[in-house]
Structure formats: C-alpha cells, structure tokens
Amino acid sequence: MVVPSKRRVLLLDTGFSARPIVESLLFRGCDVFILGRGGTTLMNPESKHYIDCDYADGDAVRAVLDEIDIDVLMPGVTDVGYETCARLAAEIGFTGLDSPQTTLELSNKESFRELCETLQLPAPRRLNPAEVHGLEAVIVKPVDGYSGRGISVLRGQEMVALDDAVTRAKIASRSSKYILEEFQSGQLYSHSCFLAEGMVLRDFIVKEYSVHNAFSVDTSYVVDNFDAGLLAQLREKVQFIASSLTLVNGLFHTQFILNEKGIWFVEVTRRCPGDLYAELIQRTTGFPYSDMYVSGFFGGDMVLAQSPTEPATGKIIRHTIKTAGRAGYSGIEFTRPLQIASLVPVAGLQAGPGVAGERIAVMFTESNSEQDFVAVLSDALNKKLYRA
What we know:
By secondary structure, the protein is of the alpha+beta class. It has 10 helices and 17 strands. Strand 11 (250-259) and strand 12 (262-269) form a beta hairpin.
C-alpha cells in the first residue's frame, strides 16, 4: 500500500464516468483539478479546482499548466484526453503516458491495423473499395471515432451503398478519414489488464453487448470462467505488443471478437473505459480497478492505495439505460423486480422532444441465482427490462 500524499493532479475529463477516478485520487490525498469544457458533475463547477477549457486543444491545456503547479497529468475516459496528455507529457515530462507516436499507433484504427499486420496479430483484414465485391460483409469506420458513431456494416447487395457509408464515417471522424475492413461476426469481449514492466499484472474478461446501438456497448458483465487457453493467448499477445512498443506501466484495454476462427482484435486503448466500467470490475471482483488505473500515472511501481473489498455475492450486470423514442421521458418504469446495487443518473427528466437512444442512467443489478441472472440479462438484451 502507498502512503497518501498531497500531490496536485490535473484530470482531463468532466463526465460522470470519471467519478471512480476522482474518488481514487481523493482517497490518495491528492489535490484534484478538473479540466474540460461546459461544466462538470464531478465537483462544484464554481470551484477554483474546475477549469473550463477544451482539453482537445493541447495549446490551451499547456497554457493552464504554465499557470498552475501540477505534479500529475491524467486522462479520464476519452481518447482525446489521453492524446493531449501524451503530447504534453512528451513536452513537459509527466509520467505514466506513452509517447505521442505510440499513442497514435494504438488509438487510431488505421494505425492499429497496420501495427497488427506488422506484428502478425489477429485482426480483421483491411480492404480498399475495389476488394469488397464478392465478400460476405464489410465494415466502414472512422479512424478516430467513438461511441459507435459513423460505423456501417454492408452485406451482399448493400455494397452498392459503400460511398454513402464512407461519407458517414468521414463525417464522424475528427480527421475526416475512414477504414474499410472485412467484417468478422461473433461475440464481443473486452480484456482489461494492468501492465508492469511489460507483463500482465492483473486482468479481467468482460462479455459485452450492444442493445440500442449495434456499435456501442450498453450491457456487460465480468466472465469468471473464460477459456484458460484463450486467456493465455490474449496475455501473450498483449505482452508482445507491450515489448514491441516499450509501453509504460498502466492499463491496457482491448476489445476483441471471438468466433469459431478464434480471437480478432478490434481496438485497444490505454485510457480508462467509460460508462463506469471501473465500477463493474470493483463491484464484481472487489478489485480497486480505478485505484490501480491512477497508480500508473504516479511513476514507479504499480502500487495500490486501496485494499480490495469483498466481491459481490451475486452476479453483477452493468446496463446503460437509454430512451426508446424521441418524445422525452418522465421516469424509468421497470417491468420486473430487480435487485439494484446502484443506479447513477446521467440525464434529467425531459418533457419535450428528445433524441432516441439518449443515455439516461447507468445501472448495476445483482442476481443471487443463475436463473435470475439469465432472466435479467435476457430482458435487457431484448429491451424488455424497463420503459423510459
């Protein structure tokens, strides 16, 4: 365990998903500053510790760092936040962040596919538009998009709409670039691990589903009986990436598809996953995920400040509750009895027109029997768990 210290930390995130990170920093006795545009729910927005600034603007963040004395610079749950931190770490010398070049190789989907090809890692095959005809299915994605925006899957005769799919991907891309790949169907998982000196120190497998948006995870749970041989493969490949790129200590989070052909790397990141992923791990296993995440930015060994807690006695499901239509919503009505471990509101009540699929809350349910777990999961996947 580490002794708490009064280090001054600047966190580039203002959203609710960074709450576990802030709590871990406060537990360590840190003096926490929050930077981001448009207010925050992580602290009183009138506080002198909140800085209204666009963290995508590296020069603006650099100007803030020139004005206040900061010991630790840390990203929250966004790729943009990590990219800015990586740039400034290279310029100023903060610890716990990869170089800007390595960050690009991992976070940019086109660059990561190139890396997979170089290292001979299993990943969907990159295509050019002339190669799509005759294929069963292809997927078009922005190279630097998020939350499933701008992604299209085309099958069979739908290939004639490739130009439209490319346009959508470019619109959703910060750099107006896209990647075209052969589509691999299968079950989506995440492998979230912590690296120390290039070796996996601790890891978790989470099974993931996309109910409201086919390319944005909203339902998930920790898998405690994942195939040992496949897990060994994942660890080996992650450690190979770590040694090949000389990665710094810290989180390495992978999303992958599993089908009859094996494992397919979809994307990786070194920032904390969103929608309270850290809380899913901690509630299920008792492991202080967010505390281990922040430890990577303090330099030196990966050392916990918080002790593990008792794991849940039942099975935990994380589900992001979203609106069904555009008429706004006045509350959440559940269709079955639930044991709710936590429900974190994201949006307020809305009487007027809204946006279909708008995120309302993140909920953690606990099931004390396999029968109840299967029933709750089935209702969530079939949009029968609630009305909103």
